[in-house]
Amino acid sequence: MKSSTLRRTLATAVALGALGTGSLVTAAPASAAMKDGRADFGEFILHYSAGLDESWTDFAWDEDYLFNDRFITPGSGYNQAVDNNAESYLNRADFTWYVYTGAVHTGNEGWLPDYYLGDFSSNFKNQVSSIYNNDAN
Amino acid sequence: MHPRTSRPAAALLLSAGLLLTACSTGEPSASADPAPLSDPSRVSAAQLVYPLDPYKATDEQRRALEKAQDLLAVDCMKRLGITYRPAARPVPAARSTQRYGLTDEVRAARYGYGTPGYVPDSAGPRSDPLTPAERLALSGPPLESKPGGGMKLPPRTLEEQRRTDSGRTVNGKKVPAGGCGREAHLRLYAEKKEPEDLLYVFGMEGEALTRAKASPKVAAAVKAWSACMAEKGYRVTDPMAPHKELGLNPEGEADLSTPKAVAAAKQDVACKKRVRLVGLWYEAEVGFQRELMEEHAETLKQVRTEHEERIRKAAKVNGN
What we know:
The complex is a heterodimer. By secondary structure, chain A is mostly beta strands. Chain A contains one helix and seven strands; from the N terminus they run αβββββββ.
């Protein structure tokens, strides 16, 4: 089970500087086609900390393996793996996103309605290892 | 949903204590009713019934909620002078039947590790069928970053949204903070107060699934499965998603249905059957779900109450 207290003491914030309105440009991994630090429409955003706080990354498409992905915006958690490591999320789409505790849509399934944001419960291990959307594309 | 900035120490200690109790044997406690709800030797993994199932939305309920939210968004957009037609929502491909990984021998033989009916996402940036003004009206302005990280939260309730000025207008009308999409969501889910987190039951299920996997009988069965796979030369340790270990690319759907993938998938299913992995895992998981349900009974009651209220609201919006 994650410890928020531990996170608060982590000195992993990178001072790249936010550009004010969510137009963050960060050094995203080469394979991160849409993981650009902009919370665009249609995207699913996973945050390192509760309350949409600290570092986050944005997903436009299905992801089979979140362990390949990193939190990419400034803040605690920057450059840590996203897999089983997010505390809050935002569905900034007009369609449902699905989350799974296992990679490649295995394990148990949860779903998030359009425009929903929330914090994973602190009572349970936060396990999201793959995500899928249900859009018309 | 409860905003939090840190975990209360008492909750941590309580969790640690309970974890120690469950971990002392690694099996669900004797006080949990041991009788499972299904017989895994008679039904497929997709048909297994779990104690937490009544606390989850059915597919039909989810579609009703989606439809209601669409109608509420249309209503809000109309108020802004925009005729909005939500895109039809496709029926999701059968994804959720792989709780324990691949277990269906017919599917394995036909599709390997592929997903029947799966349509891969397009490559490249997502296209937007709306004009900039329509998009602003629906999704609201971009979310603002906070210095040092994170985002400024949009309104969490309808009441809060009504008190918040987005500072933007479309057709001379004020855009709701977070857009009409957010308004529609709040009208259905959070008029006056935030609900319990919509992924609460998902989290509890995941906890039970993980504890069950780590329990001695299931852990031994996973080892036995791995040994069975090795008989055919497959070096794998993860019965849920062995794709990478098998050298398959799950992001290339075609790769998952090659003869190589099909052969591995068939052995995977056969080995799970041989060691009775699904049955053992299911039995342990049911026990842990019951324990967790007892421990969090009050919250679950609240989850169910809110869900039922939401379904009634959706039925009203949908004109049922």
